[in-house]
């Protein structure tokens, strides 16, 4: 596990609280703690002030109450607690795992737990909202996914497809088929196969037929409500997550 630890364990920077305009940088490496600051002032006596830097070992930092108070004032008590844990050897290995491995781990979690995990850090927020995760969730719940559903996911997004009922998916796929047939009948030479593929990959080409979900990341309660509405919860049969999303030559999904 030690191979997951880079040279820099943590780094944060930002401006001090008002009325202080000074800029600070705080970093924790495997061997030391580094505290840097830049004096920012409109007064003439502060223009020639040079940046400052303080370096301490982990043990010295844990004994330095003055520096710890400065870290708490500038970056908050949570950053202070996190830096103390790092200096004591308590590393967050989960946060340092590569994305493919984290996505695999997420497949074993309930969606309510995924929603809560997405609120723990910026990285998990981005990962839990990513198209890769929701595509993985769709394929994990359904198994076979038809090319038509994949094309629809390019327009709606995999998350919207996951929370869309079978009936709505059938309607949208049917509209796509009718639109494609109409275009082919109107001008067969212009709307060939390659053209239709390009149009299906353009997320703005059929915006009127798209019923996207909210872009905001839902909390655990809202996510659970959406799951119940769409039949994702076990025991309900009308949600898309309970069936096979592959489609035959007809207009329905099996």
Automatic annotation (TrEMBL):
Domain F-box as annotated: residue spans: 91-137
Pfam families recorded: F-box-like
UniProt-annotated stretches for the region Disordered: 194-226
Segments crossing the lipid bilayer: none
Family annotation (InterPro entries): F-box-like_dom_sf, F-box_dom
Entry superkingdom: Eukaryota
Composition bias, Basic and acidic residues: 194-209
Name of the featured protein: F-box protein 36b
Taxonomic source organism: Oncorhynchus kisutch (Coho salmon)
């Amino acid at each position: 596990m030690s191979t997951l630890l880079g040279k820099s364990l943590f780094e944060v920077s930002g401006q001090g609280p008002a009325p202080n305009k000074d800029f600070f940088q705080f970093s924790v490496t495997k061997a030391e703690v580094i505290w840097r600051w830049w004096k920012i002032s409109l007064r003439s006596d502060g223009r020639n002030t040079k940046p400052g830097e303080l370096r301490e070992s982990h043990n010295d930092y844990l004994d330095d109450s003055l520096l710890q108070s400065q870290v708490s004032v500038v970056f908050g008590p949570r950053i202070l607690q996190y830096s103390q844990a790092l200096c004591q050897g308590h590393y967050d290995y989960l946060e340092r795992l590569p994305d493919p491995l984290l996505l695999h781990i997420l497949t074993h979690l309930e969606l309510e737990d995924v929603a809560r995990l997405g609120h723990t850090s910026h990285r998990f927020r981005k990962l839990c909202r990513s198209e890769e995760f929701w595509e993985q969730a769709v394929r994990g719940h359904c198994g076979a996914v038809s090319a038509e559903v994949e094309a629809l996911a390019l327009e709606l997004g995999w998350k919207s497809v996951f929370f869309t009922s079978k009936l709505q998916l059938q309607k949208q796929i049917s509209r796509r088929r009718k639109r494609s047939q109409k275009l082919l009948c109107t001008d067969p030479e212009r709307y060939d196969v390659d053209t239709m593929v390009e149009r299906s990959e353009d997320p703005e080409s059929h915006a009127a037929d798209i019923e996207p979900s909210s872009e905001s990341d839902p909390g655990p309660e809202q996510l659970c409500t959406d799951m119940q509405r769409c039949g994702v919860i076990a025991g309900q049969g009308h949600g898309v997550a309970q069936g096979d999303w592959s489609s035959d030559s007809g207009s329905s999904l099996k």
